[in-house]
Each structure stands twice: as structure tokens, then as C-alpha cells.
Write a structure and sequence with these properties.
alpha/beta, pyruvate-formate lyase- activating enzyme, 12 strands, globular, binds S-adenosylmethionine, binds iron/sulfur cluster, heme, iron-sulfur, mitochondrion, metal ion binding, rSAM_sf
């Protein structure tokens, strides 16, 4: 923890030095340091988990042992490379997702933030989220992540029913989850999110709503409701396919979702995206950047990103996907400085599709800012991200219950 504290101070010091350097270099590197193409969100993928949950098909591995120093060094290298290739001068949010990034050491988190602060401007108030799995002893680790620079936690609570948690293959109980949540709120007041799943096999509307209402007694200012997607290749999928469990009923899931939205609205939450609810302005600025088609860099195995590479003559926004398998990804990073597996230049039609699909997920709909990705000319350089505090409800595919409850209550990474 002491080490993490030192690293956090080093990050702040490095951030100041980097800021001074950039001011000096500013005139050379850019005439408009605040323009959209020079700002980005940064996603960092930690690909390891303790155990495979029965429903999950995210890019995750259950290792015998993790070579953390090697992984840390590769994440740092890839962040430096992609920041250079993208010409990004200001990182506006960082998201450590996974896998289970709360299994990484706080030292790793601090080292990545430090590298980012040295390579670009990382504002002191930048949103830095870490996904944390509930444990029976959350205290000191969470505070060490805080000392490393994390200032927002997303807790994968999933359910407050122990039988459901077992069905999902989780390693924690409902009481562990509540304890982790309480500890997280103590350490990061106003900046804790919880993920709650709905539409599980055998789940009924009434008991699920009681869980949600119980959660309201404990939660902070951000809640994500994710409808279960039965993913091919998962244990749960096989159990349902073989008849060991009933298939989730989509109409019940739609009812849970609609009733859940109403409960959260009454409790003062704004539904700012199909699956996401915030009060007191606690929206996730990181995810908001995705939905507004802002730039984001994805580092780590299987991470994806969207940015305009600063190559000679290039003005095209690209979708980039990093190599999935951690060992292969590490070898590539050691050889080339990055493990980018795919680069897909996005044409006008693809950009338009993204603007529509992302914008309609939110309550502000298709904004002028979002559509500037499509209309903004070469490289979408004029792109700015709409203010998440704006609240004119024009989009929200949620107004179509079938569309949202059956297809869209997942995160934007799928
Ligand atoms: C991939 S997990 C990573 C965070 C962390 N490892 C955890 O399990 O809490 C992020 C979130 O995605 C959601 N998720 C994962 N698989 C899902 C599925 N098949 N259907 C719906 N939501 C899912 C869960 O709510 C989970 O909290
Ligand atoms: C399942 S969501 C959970 C978010 C959580 N409910 C919150 O409010 O912070 C995880 C987020 O991580 C990011 N993400 C996950 N996997 C990613 C990947 N492979 N590449 C880029 N970003 C990813 C996306 O921003 C996604 O919304
Ligand atoms: S849900 Fe989270 S903890 Fe479970 S396997 Fe997926 S990434 Fe790992």
C-alpha cells in the first residue's frame, strides 16, 4: 500500500512534468490541443479471473499463475505505443476492466497510470474506474487501489440471492457483495457503481424486484442492470440446451426491466443509457465517450478501440482489436510495441451505423456532437463529446421494451 501511495504521488508529479513539457511542445505538435481527435478515453483489459462464471464469454483466462511483472510491462508498453500512434494529448478517463482487474496488484494499476501521465495529459480529476469482484475481505485492497489512482469502482454484484450466485458460478455470497459495497462507498463516496443481472433461468419478477429494492438501501449513485445473454460455449448455455435448466423467459425479463426502470426512476435515478442509471450526476464519463462515438484506445488482450491514427496522410477513424490470447499478445507487444490484431478503417456507412446505434442507447439520442463523427469530414477531427449532464430525452432505445430488454441490456463491448 505504501508503494502504491508513492506511485500515486509519482503519477501526480509525472503528470505535472509532462504537462509542462507538453505546454512547451504544444505549438509544435498542435495548433488546437483541445480538438476531439487529440482527446480519448483509455480502456485497459486485465484478462485473468479466479474462476469461470457460468454465463460469461468475455475474454478471460484462469491461469495457474500470473506473470504479473511481464503483463504490467506489456500493458505499459502498449499504452505508450497507442498513445503515440493516436497522437492523443489528453486522456479523459481510464477504465480497468476484465476479466478481474481487482486481482491485479495496485502497483500494476499505478504503473500504467504513471506511464499514461508521462506520455500525455492525464487531468487530476480524470475518472479512473476499476471493476472489482466482491470478496469477503475487501478493505485494504480497495484502499490500495485508491492510493494507486483509482477514483471510481464498478462492483460486479450480479445478484443478492445466494442460490442465484451459485447458479452463476460466482465466488462470493450476497453478504460478501454487500460488505464490499459498503467498504467501497466508505472509500469512494459517490463514485461506486453496481452491476445487477436480470432474466436468469427460473428468476421471477417479484423476488427480483425485491432484490433491487433491497439494493437501493445499500447502493451508491450508479446502478447498471444487465439482462442475461445466454452465450454459446458457456456452462449456462449448455445447461439450458440440455434441459437441466429452463430457458430464461424473455417476457419476464422485459417485465423485470420495465419495473426495474420505474423503481430506479422513483429513487431519483436518471436512466442515461439502456442499462445505466445514475443520480446526483454520477454518470460514467468513460462509457459516455463510447456512446457519443468519442475516441478510445483499448490496451490489453482483446481490448478494442476507435481512433484516428496519426500516420502520414491518414484521416480515417479505425476500429482496432488487440490479440485475444494473453501469452501471444505479450509476445507481440515485446516484438512490435503493441498487440494490435485487426485494424478496420471505418467508412461513412459504418460511422453512421455507429453514431445511430450508440446514440440511440442514450437518453440524449443522436446529438449534433455525435453526428459530427459522420459529418465532420476527414478524421472526424472536430469531434467533441456531448455533455453527459444534458438531459433532453430524445433517444434511449429503452422506449422500445422489446429491443432493449431482449437485445440491448449489455455493455457496449459486445
Ligand atoms: C465481464 S464482467 C467483468 C467484471 C468482473 N469480472 C465481474 O465479474 O464483476 C462485467 C459485467 O458484465 C456483465 N456480464 C458478463 N457476462 C454477461 C452475460 N452473459 N449477460 C449479461 N451480462 C453479463 C456482468 O454483469 C458483469 O458485472
Ligand atoms: C460491462 S461494462 C461495466 C460498466 C459498469 N457498469 C460501470 O458503470 O462502470 C464494462 C465497460 O468496459 C469497457 N469494455 C469492456 N470490454 C472492453 C473491451 N474489450 N474493449 C474496450 N472496452 C471494453 C466498456 O466501456 C464497457 O462498458
Ligand atoms: S463475469 Fe467477471 S469474474 Fe466471472 S468469468 Fe466473467 S470476467 Fe471473470
Amino acid at each position: 500500500m505504501a508503494l502504491a501511495g508513492v506511485r500515486a504521488r509519482a503519477w501526480a508529479a509525472a503528470a505535472k512534468i509532462a504537462q509542462r513539457q507538453r505546454r512547451a511542445e504544444g505549438a509544435e505538435r498542435s495548433r488546437s490541443p483541445e480538438s476531439g481527435s487529440q482527446r480519448a478515453a483509455l480502456y485497459v483489459h486485465w484478462p485473468y479471473c479466479e474462476k469461470r462464471c457460468s454465463y460469461c464469454n468475455f475474454n478471460k483466462y484462469i491461469p495457474r499463475g500470473v506473470e504479473e511483472a511481464a503483463m504490467r510491462s506489456c500493458l505499459v508498453t502498449e499504452a505508450q505505443t497507442l498513445l503515440r500512434l493516436s497522437g492523443v494529448q489528453r486522456v479523459e478517463s481510464v477504465f480497468f476492466g476484465g476479466g478481474t482487474p481487482s486481482l491485479a496488484s495496485p502497483h500494476t494499476v499505478a504503473a500504467i497510470l504513471e506511464a499514461v501521465a508521462q506520455a500525455t495529459h492525464l487531468p487530476a480529476d480524470c475518472e479512473v474506474t476499476l471493476e472489482a469482484n466482491p470478496t469477503s475481505a475487501p478493505g485494504s485492497r480497495l484502499s490500495a487501489f485508491g492510493a494507486a489512482g483509482v477514483n471510481r469502482l464498478s462492483i460486479g454484484l450480479q445478484s443478492l440471492n445466494d442460490t442465484e450466485l451459485q447458479l452463476l458460478g460466482r465466488t462470493h455470497s450476497a453478504s460478501d457483495a454487500l460488505q464490499t459495497l459498503a467498504e467501497a462507498r466508505r472509500l469512494f463516496p459517490g463514485r461506486v457503481s453496481v452491476d445487477l443481472m436480470l432474466g436468469l433461468p427460473t428468476q421471477q419478477v417479484g423476488p427480483w424486484l425485491r432484490q433491487l429494492k433491497e439494493l437501493l438501501h445499500h447502493c451508491d449513485d450508479h446502478v447498471s442492470l444487465y439482462q442475461l445473454t445466454l452465450e454459446r460455449g458457456t456452462t449456462l448455455f449448455t445447461q439450458v440446451q440440455q434441459g437441466a435448466l429452463p430457458a430464461p423467459d424473455p417476457d419476464l425479463a422485459a417485465e423485470m426491466y420495465q419495473e426495474g426502470r420505474a423503481v430506479l426512476r422513483e429513487a431519483g435515478f436518471r436512466q442515461y443509457e439502456v442499462s445505466n442509471f445514475a443520480r446526483n450526476g454520477a454518470l460514467s464519463t468513460h462509457n459516455w465517450t463510447y456512446w457519443q462515438c468519442g475516441q478510445y484506445l483499448g490496451i490489453g488482450p482483446g481490448a478494442h478501440g476507435r481512433f484516428v491514427p496519426q500516420e502520414a496522410g491518414s484521416h480515417v477513424r479505425e476500429a482496432r482489436i488487440q490479440t485475444l490470447e494473453p501469452d501471444i499478445w505479450m509476445k507481440e507487444v515485446m516484438l512490435h510495441g503493441h498487440g494490435t490484431r485487426k485494424r478496420i478503417p471505418l467508412g461513412k456507412l459504418e460511422l453512421l451505423e455507429e453514431v445511430l446505434a450508440m446514440g440511440l442507447r442514450t437518453d440524449v439520442g443522436i446529438t449534433h456532437q455525435g453526428s459530427s463523427v459522420f459529418l465532420g469530414g476527414p478524421g472526424c477531427a472536430g469531434l467533441t463529446v456531448a455533455d453527459p449532464a444534458a438531459s433532453t430525452p430524445r433517444g434511449l432505445a429503452a422506449e422500445s421494451p422489446l429491443l432493449c430488454a431482449r437485445r440491448m441490456t449489455r455493455c457496449s463491448c459486445t
